[in-house]
Amino acid sequence: MTDAGSPPRRISPLVVLVHTVTFRQARQALGIALPIGAAVGFDGGTTTVVVLAVAVTLASLLASGLSWWRFAYVDGPASVVVTRGLLARSTRTVPRDRIRGVEVETPLLHRLLGLVRVRIDAAAGSATGQDEEVVLDGVRRAEGERLRAGLLVRRAPGPGDDATVPGPPEPAAPPAEEVLARFDRRWLLYAPLVGGYLAVPVAALGALLRLLDELPRSVRPEIDGPEVTGPAAAAVAVVVVLVLLAVGSIVGAAVVNWGFRLVRRGGSLVAVRGLLTRRHTELEVDRIRGVTVTAGLGMRWVRAARVSALVTGLGAAQRRGQLLPLGPRDLAEELAGRLADDPGPLRAHPAAARRRRLARAVTPGLVVAGAGAVATALAGWWPLLVAGAALAVLGVPLGLGRYAALGHAAGPRSFAVRGGWLVQERAVLQKRAVVGWQVRQSPFQRRAGVATVVACVGAGSGGYAAVDVAADDVVPFTRAASGTWAGALEI
User: Fold this and answer.
1) Which residues have CB under 8 Å from 228's CB, separation 6+?
2) 166: which residues sit within 8 A by CB, 6+ positions away?
3) How far apart, in whole angstroms, are the C-alpha atoms of residue 415 and residue 456?
4) Listed residue (477, 483, 430, 482) closest to 452, CA to CA
5) How far is CA 279 from its chain centroid?
6) What is the pLDDT of residues 395-443, one digit of tens each?
7) Taking the domains of the chain in order of start, what are their residue ranges?
8) Residue 449 gets which letter from DSSP?
9) Strands (E), 312-449
10) CB neighbours of 30 closer than 8 A, spacing ≥ 6?
């Protein structure tokens, strides 16, 4: 396992201690070990728990040691080669010119031991659909910085690239940093309006309850919940839960985004974030094919948004491509405009699209109201009728809101599509990002004279849709958004 004579390297042996303490290799066996322990006397007392803990620790130590012994990597001039496995050996080669991004993580235990975890994203992933990135877990901090600085190979634009955006030459000296965004602690107040951060305290509580449930009854603490009696106590309980959720979401956002800073360094974008686990993500600007500006319903109320880069071949793109995790809408739009040309104001979709959104939003309420009318006539039970009528009335602003979220535009160098209501996303993509178009038209859409147009790209989610575009506008839009080759589309 060599690349032009490059010697194989090993990760630090201190990673064996990290993996033993965190039970990294042994964690998969816990689902089997706990039922077996319960079957042979897991409830026998503290001795059984201690014996099981020692056994799991020793097994984790052995597995970690063998994993470290059989892991090696080569950082050659043409490729990165990783070899692993005890019985079934696996060798993976990643050409340096296929590397799309490099992330250096520093979890708390790694930081105490002077280690880092390096994640290397390649364009092609793997044949099995797993291990879409090369992970070097447990290299020294200096080695991690060397890999981060040297793995993103600058290249000249290829035939499919935009010749007006050449790859920057290798600088003779370290390039100057341009700060694009810096996290303001006041932005943490947006966190309770983001579903992902609200899920953090819920997930933490679920993990704690599951852990307590797995403990033997002899060592399990007895916790009696407070009794809630009466409307006032119930209201207080709801308020307390909401406050705890809000506080938990703010704490979760702070842990993930503490010290966030986005800078442009030469031809790369570098994002640094994290309190306990410090992450240093570097993306090559030439690989960015567009951006998305996302805002949930609550975030739109306070004019906040998130920005992510669409990078070809980037794994875990939702997290790794995040350029602004949380911030004011104006800053998000400014950042997006610096990375992808603004194609101009979005074009509204036809009136048929509005009618379809209204019909979809109102129909469930009308169905419930119809069932309620039958129940009222037969049994005099009217609450279902009232509920259905209320749902139908509420469906009107919901349908109008969904319609207002639709839009598309095509400019000289980019195009944009927007959709979503609960979570609204506007994607701005470069013309060179499109690798194909897909047009979908159901019988109802055909009757209404609209169609859904999907831009197929090799970045982000892989496809971005303009829903219920006027059928006559499909070909002009696709031609303007990608080129004359899209004129072969037929509706």
Assistant:
1) 234, 237
2) 156, 157
3) 13
4) 477
5) 15
6) 999 999 999 999 999 999 999 999 998 899 999 999 988 888 999 999 9
7) 14-153, 154-158+173-219+229-340, 351-404
8) T
9) 322-328, 407-410, 414-419, 423-430, 434-440
10) 23, 56
